[in-house]
Write a structure and sequence with these properties.
This protein has 69 residues and is mostly beta strands. It has one domain (4-54). The chain is 0% helix and 45% strand. It starts with a strand and ends in a 15-residue tail after the last strand.
Amino acid sequence: MVAGAVELLSGSSQVAATTTGPDGRFQFQVPPGHYTVVAHNSGYLSTASQDVDVSGSVDVTLVVDSGMR
């Protein structure tokens, strides 16, 4: 896993942002609603996103490909 930046969007507005730990984990505490989680791989131009409906605790797994082979 690679540490990176993570954004939480509501529509096109950023609601929260954080960085992951070395293990790739992150956490947000937000009110119930519909959000998009966007992960950015530090040092690379790749991203991954997932829409989530929050009504309690939600686990999200995103795989951000560095593009390196």
